[in-house]
Each structure stands twice: as structure tokens, then as C-alpha cells.
């Protein structure tokens, strides 16, 4: 069974940093394109960052220069390093494996507030 388990969220002050992790199990990981999405209250889920199997990355304009996506295929884990956090970054963050489009984890809550 495919599972995605996100962790690392929390409450942080504006300008702070967090590192999210997503551990994948039960499926193919090393060749998968992996994404981080987020969903703020009352808003649609949006794509934040993408990493290919070769390590190429892409970011939403709103996070470019502040967030970094990375992966460790041996650990079947994808990371999202988030720096210079803003209140607008407050959301539940989800990772996503494009090979298994129907599977989502429970997400991890990120709250940026003073």
C-alpha cells in the first residue's frame, strides 16, 4: 500500500525557517517526480515545488529563492527547506508522488505568525 507521511511542520515567527520531510513507502520512489503542495484555509491546493528523479527542481514564483526541495532516494524521502517564512506561507503542506495520483498523505501544518 502506498503511503506518504509528512512531518516537520509547526508554529514559526515570520522570517523563520522549517524543514519538512515526507517519507514514502509501499511504492516506486526513485524514478518518481515528487511534488510539495500546500492548501491554506479557504483556498485551493497549490503546487509549491517539484523535483524530478534526476534532481531537477521547479518552484512556484511565490516561494522561489526561499524554499528548496531535495530528495534522498535511499531513504525514500523528499524534503522542503523553507526559509524567510511569511504569514502567507501558512497552510497544510502535502507531498505527492506523480506515479500514484490518488494517494495523499495527511499533511503537516505550517503556521507563520508572530
How would you portray this structure in words?
The chain is mainly β. It is 0% helix and 48% strand. It contains no helices and 10 strands. The strands form 2 sheets. It has a 6-stranded mixed β-sheet with strand order 2-10-9-4-5-6, with no helix packed on it. A hairpin with a 6-residue loop joins β4 and β5. It is globular, with a radius of gyration of 13 Å. The N and C termini lie far apart (40 Å). The model has no long low-confidence stretch (mean pLDDT 96).
Question: Secondary-structure map with pairings?
Answer:
Blueprint: E1 3-7, E2 10-12, E3 18-25, E4 34-39, E5 46-51, E6 57-59, E7 67-72, E8 77-82, E9 91-97, E10 108-112
Parallel strand pairs: 2-10
Antiparallel strand pairs: 1-3, 3-8, 4-5, 4-9, 5-6, 7-8, 9-10
Helix vs. strand class:
mainly beta
Task: Give the number of DSSP strands.
Answer: 10
First and last CA, distance: 40 Å
Categorize the overall geometry.
globular
Give the biggest beta sheet.
6 strands, mixed
SSE order: EEEEEEEEEE
Amino acid at each position: 500500500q502506498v503511503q506518504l507521511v509528512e512531518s516537520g511542520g509547526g508554529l514559526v515567527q515570520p522570517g523563520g525557517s522549517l524543514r519538512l520531510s515526507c517519507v514514502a513507502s509501499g511504492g516506486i520512489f526513485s524514478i518518481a517526480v515528487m511534488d510539495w503542495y500546500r492548501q491554506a484555509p479557504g483556498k485551493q491546493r497549490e503546487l509549491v515545488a517539484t523535483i524530478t528523479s534526476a534532481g531537477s527542481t521547479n518552484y512556484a514564483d511565490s516561494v522561489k529563492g526561499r524554499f528548496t526541495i531535495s530528495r534522498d532516494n535511499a531513504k525514500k524521502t523528499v524534503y522542503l527547506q523553507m526559509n524567510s517564512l511569511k504569514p502567507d506561507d501558512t497552510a497544510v503542506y502535502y507531498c505527492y508522488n506523480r506515479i500514484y495520483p490518488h494517494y495523499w498523505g495527511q499533511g503537516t501544518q505550517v503556521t507563520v505568525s508572530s
